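User: For a benchmark we're assembling, each entry needs the component sequences followed by a predicted structure for the full assembly. Here are entry 17's components. Please fill in the structure.
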Amino acid sequence: MAHFHNVKHTTYYVELIMQQLTDTLMETNATVVRQSFSVKFAYDVYFTTHLFDGKNTLLKDFLHQHKSDTVKKIFFVVDEGVMNHHGYLDEQIRNYFSHETSIALVDEIMVVPGGEAAKNTESLLLKIVDAVDKYSIDRHSYIVAIGGGAVLDLVGYAAAISHRGIRHVRIPTTVLSQDDSAIGVKNGVNYKGKKNFLGTFAPPVAVFNDFYFLTTLTDAEWRSGISEAVKVALIKDAPFFAWLKENATVLAARNMEAMKYLVQRSAALHMEHIASGDPFEMGSSRPLDFGHWSAHKLEQLSGFTVKHGEAVALGIALDSAYSFVSGRLSEDDAKSIVDVLLDLGFSISHPLMEIKDESSPVIKGLEEFREHLGGKLTIMLLSAIGQGEEVHELDIALLQKASAWLGTI
Amino acid sequence: MAHFHNVKHTTYYVELIMQQLTDTLMETNATVVRQSFSVKFAYDVYFTTHLFDGKNTLLKDFLHQHKSDTVKKIFFVVDEGVMNHHGYLDEQIRNYFSHETSIALVDEIMVVPGGEAAKNTESLLLKIVDAVDKYSIDRHSYIVAIGGGAVLDLVGYAAAISHRGIRHVRIPTTVLSQDDSAIGVKNGVNYKGKKNFLGTFAPPVAVFNDFYFLTTLTDAEWRSGISEAVKVALIKDAPFFAWLKENATVLAARNMEAMKYLVQRSAALHMEHIASGDPFEMGSSRPLDFGHWSAHKLEQLSGFTVKHGEAVALGIALDSAYSFVSGRLSEDDAKSIVDVLLDLGFSISHPLMEIKDESSPVIKGLEEFREHLGGKLTIMLLSAIGQGEEVHELDIALLQKASAWLGTI
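Assistant: Structure for entry 17:
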C-alpha cells in the first residue's frame, strides 16, 4: 500500500529533520519522539531606599529596559498593613507614573488584607484575576505586589495563572520576604486549611527591596526574618555566621546598616542556591529547609500563633542539637548557634516542640515534610557551621536527647 | 562604624562567592543581584495501539524508569465520552496494575464529562484537586488524563497547581489532541466564558498516543484534527503538505495507516517547533497559530457550534487567500491549499467568516488575538508552501479581496 510505504519512509524522514531521537520500540510495536528543551529565567533583585521617591529612577529604568511598540499597563496590589503605615504610598505611586507615556498605571491601586488570611481567602484571588480581565492586563503588562510574604504569594499566584502568566514584580516589605521568600520562585495559596496546597513555580521579572519599609515593622516582625539568614549561613557560609554572631545584639537593637547587610547577604545566598540547585524542586531534596520540618509542624500545632520566623529559630535549635547529639557537630558549635539565636531575641524552647517520647506531636512533622515533596525523606543537618549534610532518617531516641540538651541551656 | 565597614566588605565578598554580577548603581544608591538559571524539561511522546493490553508494557516500562524507594501512586481521570465508547477501560486499567508492587493504582478511576464544558465547570477542577488531597497524591506520584483536548487541559491544570505541580501523564484520544494540543506544554480552563483565561505552561512527563481510540471517533471528530496537520505542514514542511495532498481522499475515508503517519509527523513537527522556539511564549509571536486569529473568533461568534478544527480549516483558507492577494503566494499554491481542505471534507466558507467591510464581525478577532499574547500584533502568513512569514498588520481591503476570492471557488 502506498500509504504504508509512506509511513515507513517518513518515520525515517522525521528522524532526520527533527534531529531528535526517534526510536522504534520493537517489542511493543511503538515509536517515540523524545522532547527536550531548556527555558531560561532571569530576574534582577534590587536593594534600595524610598523606591517611589520621584528622584529614585530604579523602577522606571527597569521598566524602560523592555522596549515595546505598545503602551504597557502596570497594576499595583498593596498589603493593607503596608498602606496603613505608609499612607502616602497611593499618592506617591500615582505621582511616580504621572509623566510616563510608555507605561500606563491602572487607575485602581488594589488594597488587600495581609498575613496568612490573604492566602486563605479564595475571593481575594478571584478579585485579582477579575481585575486582570476588567483592565485588560495582558501578558506583557505588569502586576506589582507590595507587601509581606503572604500577599506576595497570593498576588504571584494570581499573576502566574492569569493568561498563563503575566509579568510579575515583587516589592517585599518585611525582613522575611526581603531576605528569603520574595527573591525565590514560588507562589501559592492555602486550600481547605492546607498551606500552599495550590501554587506554581513562576519566577518574577524583578524584585525591589526597599529598606525603608522595614522601619515600620514591629520588633517581632523585624526579628522574625532573621532566622532564615541564620539558617542559610549555617548550611552554606561560615563567615556569614561569624558576622551574625558578632552583630546579633545590634541586629536585635534594630541597627539598620547591619540589617541592610544581612538582607543582601541572605538574599544573595538564597538566590545562588536556587540557581545552582533544583529551582523547580523536581527532586526530593530541599536543602534550604534546614530546621523547617519541625517549624512547619509547630506553626500548625500552635494554630499559627507562633510566627514562621520564630518557629524556624526553634527548628534550627532542635536540628543543631540533633547534629551535636548524633555526633556530626561539636557541642561548642551547637552551643554557639543557640547563643546567637538567644542574642537575637529568639526562644529556643517551646512546650509544643518538646520531644519526650514517640508520641510527641511535633514528630508527625517528619512524615508531613516527606509527603509535601514526595519521594524519600530528606532532612538537612549540620556537619560543621557553614556545612550542611543530608540524611534520610532521624532517630527518635536522639531527637529526645537533642530536645533534652536544649532544656539544659 | 564596624557594621558599615562590614557592609562594604561583604558586598565585594558576595560578588566573589556568588559568581553573579553584583552592580552598585551609583546614581540611585542601589545594589542589584542578577539571577539567571535554566530549567530543563524533557518528556517522551509514544505512539502505540492498545496501551492497556496486558502484553503492552510501554506504560509500565516508562513508570519503572523512575526508580524510587517509595511506592508511587497513579491516579486516572477519564473522559466520559471515552469511557462510554470503551467500557472495558476501567477493568483493563485495574488489571494492568494488579500485579504491580512499586506503583499503587488509586482505587477511584475518576470519570469527568468531556468537551469544552469540562473547562467551564469550576467544580470539576476542584473535584480533581480534592482527590489529590483525599488520596495523598504527592509530587512524585502520577496523575494520568485519558481523553480529548478539553479534559487534558482541565486535568493538566489541576495537576500543575496542586502541590505546585504533580507529575502528569497525558493519553490523548482524539486526532486533534494526538497531533497537536496534547504533545505541547499548555493547560488551562475557561473563566467567566473566556477561553483558557486561567492556565499554566507545564510540560507533561510523558504522552501516550493510542491509535485505537481514534477508531470510535465520529467522522467530524476524525476530520477535525487534520487541519492542524495541514497548518504545520504549510508553515514548516512542504514535503508533508505534498503527502497530505496525495492522501487527502484516503484520510477522509478513514484510512488508519495514513492517519498514523499524519499524527506522528504532525506531532513531531509541533514538538520540534516548541523545543526550538519560545516554549513558554514569553515573546509576542506564536507562529503555530497560522490561521487561528479568525478561527478563534469564528468559534466564539458561532457559540462554539463550529468545532476548533473546522474553524482552523476556514482560517487557513482565509490566510492562504490573503497570502495570495497580498502578493506573497502564487494563486496556484493558494488554490492547491484550498483543494486539499475540500478533499479532506472541510468547508472553506462560512457566513460568519465573510469579510464585506470594516464592520464584519470576524475582524475583531485580530485585536483579540493581539491582546491574548500582549505586545505587538504578529500574524503568520505564507511566502510559499512550507514557508511561514510573520507580519504585524493586515489590510482590511485585502482581507475583503481574500474573502471574495474564496467565494469564487
